[in-house]
Structure formats: C-alpha cells, structure tokens
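=== RUN LOG ===
request id: a7f3
mode: sequence -> structure
chains: 1
length: 140
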Amino acid sequence: MKRLGPYKHPFRCVIPLMLGAALTLVLGCGSVTAAGAIGDAQRSLEEAQGLEAEQNAPYEYTRAAAYLHKARELQGYGLYEQASEYARQSMQAAEKAQDVARLGKDKKQRLEKFAPKAPEDGKARDSKRNVPGLAPSGDE
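=== RESULT ===
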C-alpha cells in the first residue's frame, strides 16, 4: 500500500472533512432558525399594522415592535438563541395586537351602525324629550 500524504490510510483525510462539515451545519442552524423566527414575527407585525393596531392596540403593537427590534439586534451580535426567543415574544405580542385591533375595529363599526343619528333637517333636537325622567312619576 502506498503512502498518501501525511495520512497513512486513504480514508483518514475524510474524517476531518466530515467533522468540519458537521460542525458547520450545527453552527449554521442557529442563524437559520433565528432568521426564520424574525421573518415570522415581521409578518405578524405587518398584519397587525394592516388591522390598524397602532391606533386600536397601541400597547401590544409597540411591545411587538420593540421585541422585534431587540431580536434583530441580538441576531446582529450572533446571539441566535436569544434572538429567536425575542422574535417568538414579538410574534406573540403581534398576535395579541391583531386580536385587540380586530375587537377595536368591530367596536367602532358597531358604534357607527347603532349610534343615534343626527336629524336630517339639520336642526338639533331637544335631547330632554328622548331621555326618560328621573322622578318616579316620570315628571321632570
């Protein structure tokens, strides 16, 4: 058997290459996971923005935006596990903002639908006529 470089056995050079490839895959997964989580959180935040969450759910929307900002910052520092966690929290807050925004929009629509309307002739009505009296006899 001929000698092949510094390795005595022909398959010995394959082992370090395989270990290097495995290490690259293991280390690379964190960045892929964090990027996916941040992308999901971004889409949830955009959906909340489409539901006017900035006006209808300002606390939840701001919370989601702040967590997303922190997730991107941590991803930039290479702290992928922490970035994924902040992205997950951002997505939860964005989903909560979506729910609150939907409720707010529904409430506004119901108020517009069932609110008393102004008279068509443009004259203000006497509001006392529409309000029941407070006295037991109904007299005012």
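=== NOTES ===
Residues 14-50 form the longest helix (37 residues).
The mean pLDDT is 80.
=== END ===
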